[in-house]
Amino acid sequence: MRTKLKITEGIFPMPVLMVATYNEDGSVNVMNAAWGTMQERDTVALNLTETHKTVQNIKARGAFTVSIADAAHMVEADYFGVESGNKVGDKFARSGLTASKAEAVDAPVINEFPICLECKFIEYQNNEYGCGVIGKVVNVTADESVMVDGKIDMSKVNAIAFDPYTHGYYKVTERVGEAFCDGLKLKK
Description:
With about 190 residues, this protein is mainly beta. It contains four helices and 14 strands. It has helices at about 55-60, 75-80, 90-95, 155; strands at about 15, 15-20, 30-35, 35-40, 45, 65-70, 100, 110, 115-125, 130-140, 145-150, 150, 160-165, 170. Strands 3-2-6-9-10-5-4 form a seven-stranded antiparallel sheet. A three-stranded antiparallel sheet has the order 1-13-14. It is globular. It comes from Dorea formicigenerans.
């Protein structure tokens, strides 16, 4: 037996992405965006409306960064989703986090988040099926604390995911299988 739910955005887990830009005055702006994904291997798609301060900044600067939020900074990550950069100019400063300039684009890297994708703005799409920012990933950096033998160890990242059913955050920490390998056991 199945139960009908009153929800439309029911894909779980949804990533908790921190999208960072510079404001006109050079200060840092960050927003929480759960509706984002990789469109291709080097292309990010973020479902964001043009009313967001972040989108205005992306268009003005031609760049942004996308960081993976972690459990240690869940409160700050949530704050970036509940406070608007259009209303609070010092939103990032209030978080207590720090930033440095990205190596490859005109956007900030939030130092406390473990993984950061530096993106060049490609285009803004707006049609009947959605809207959003498309960006080309030109550089990816990771904090050394999440690296093992030159590779990212996702169990050390402690990434968080958004649950649209209950509006909760969950840690993504345990490796349960080997992609492109475990399924071969069923292949004949």
